[in-house]
């Protein structure tokens, strides 16, 4: 018969108790609504115990902050890597709540208690400073989109990005005018990333027909039919660029006719 090896929350109590006792605290279990209290002179520490880090534990910890700023949550040491994004994200949330975090490894004969970090004020300004680059990229992505073609919350679905929109703009230009150089495309308004998009050819929409000249592939033409709204939008931009060029050329011709012979505007 297979032995039941399920770990109970009560098994975390003794290692955590011994840890704080070793630091000179007087420790008590189940005081009021608190799993564990540790006191030394006027200092009060509260520890909430759970096998895993979950919402209930975070709520308990947040409520205990009404009683003291020194609140820890103690959990079993996770089986997944402490260097993983999953663990780092969880640590960020606990820090954000200004709670301390303790892990307990129930090793045979000698449990190991580790304070991952102590409770303390969360420096939100510093956190934002560290995310300036991410914020800038997010704002660039928003600015680079010209419609709302994605459903929020989608997982595993293809999404429309600013990069893909840029590639569609280039594809629309090549469809209208045939093979063009990156410089000519930029003059049509495709932006500074044009050469990079053509060279990397991430979607397989472009083919280099000569040095510095690209045309649209059959795959690219097929993709244009899947985004009629964006194609119509970029077609209007391309036409506007053409009209601006034609108007500028007309003004230049008019000015040239008005000048004395041999002079250029």
Describe this entry's structure for a reader.
45% of the residues lie in helices and 18% in strands. It is α/β, with parallel strands linked by helices. The chain has 2 domains: 10-120, 3-Layer(aba) Sandwich (Trna Endonuclease, Chain: A, domain 1), CATH 3.40.1350; 162-253, Arc Repressor Mutant, subunit A (Orthogonal Bundle), CATH 1.10.10. Strand 5 and strand 6 (112-117) form a beta hairpin.
Count of individual beta strands: 8
Broad structural category: alpha/beta
- CA radius of gyration is 32 Å
Distance between the termini: 98 Å
How many domains, as an integer? Answer: 2
Q: Calculate the mean pLDDT score and round it.
A: 87
Helix content: 40-55%
Give the CATH topology of the largest domain.
Answer: Trna Endonuclease, Chain: A, domain 1
CATH architecture of the largest domain: 3-Layer(aba) Sandwich
The gist of it:
Helices cover 45% and strands 18% of the residues. It is α/β, with parallel strands linked by helices and 265 residues long.
Keywords:
18% strand; alpha/beta; Trna Endonuclease, Chain: A, domain 1; elongated; 2 domains; 265 residues; Arc Repressor Mutant, subunit A; 6-stranded mixed sheet; two-stranded antiparallel sheet
List the helices and strands and how they pair.
Elements: H1 10-22, E1 26-31, E2 34-40, E3 43-49, H2 55-64, E4 71-76, H3 85-96, E5 100-105, E6 112-117, H4 124-129, H5 132-143, H6 162-177, H7 182-187, H8 194-200, E7 206-210, E8 213-216, H9 218-224, H10 228-258
Parallel strand pairs: 3-4, 4-5
Antiparallel strand pairs: 1-2, 2-3, 5-6, 7-8
């Amino acid at each position: 018969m297979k032995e039941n090896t399920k770990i109970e929350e009560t098994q975390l109590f003794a290692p955590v108790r011994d840890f704080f006792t070793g630091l000179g605290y007087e420790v008590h279990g189940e005081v009021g609504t608190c799993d564990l209290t540790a006191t030394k002179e006027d200092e009060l520490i509260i520890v909430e115990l759970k096998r895993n880090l979950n919402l209930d534990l975070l709520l308990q910890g947040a409520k205990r902050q009404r009683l003291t700023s020194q609140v820890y949550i103690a959990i079993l040491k996770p089986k997944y890597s402490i260097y993983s994004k999953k663990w780092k994200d969880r640590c960020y949330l606990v820090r954000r709540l200004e709670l301390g975090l303790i892990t307990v490894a129930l090793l045979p004969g000698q449990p190991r208690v580790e304070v991952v970090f102590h409770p303390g004020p969360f420096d939100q300004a510093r956190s934002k400073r560290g995310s300036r680059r991410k914020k800038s990229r997010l704002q660039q992505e928003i600015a680079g989109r010209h419609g709302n073609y994605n459903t929020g919350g989608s997982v595993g679905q293809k999404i429309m990005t600013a990069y893909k929109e840029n590639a569609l703009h280039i594809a629309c230009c090549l469809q209208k005018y045939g093979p063009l150089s990156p410089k000519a495309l930029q003059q049509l308004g495709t932006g500074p990333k044009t050469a990079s998009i053509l060279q990397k050819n991430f979607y397989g929409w472009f083919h280099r027909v000569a040095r510095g000249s690209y045309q649209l592939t059959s795959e690219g033409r097929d993709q244009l039919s899947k985004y009629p709204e964006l194609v119509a939008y970029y077609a209007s931009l391309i036409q506007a660029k053409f009209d601006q060029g034609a108007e500028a050329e007309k003004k230049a011709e008019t000015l040239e006719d008005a000048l004395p012979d041999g002079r250029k505007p």
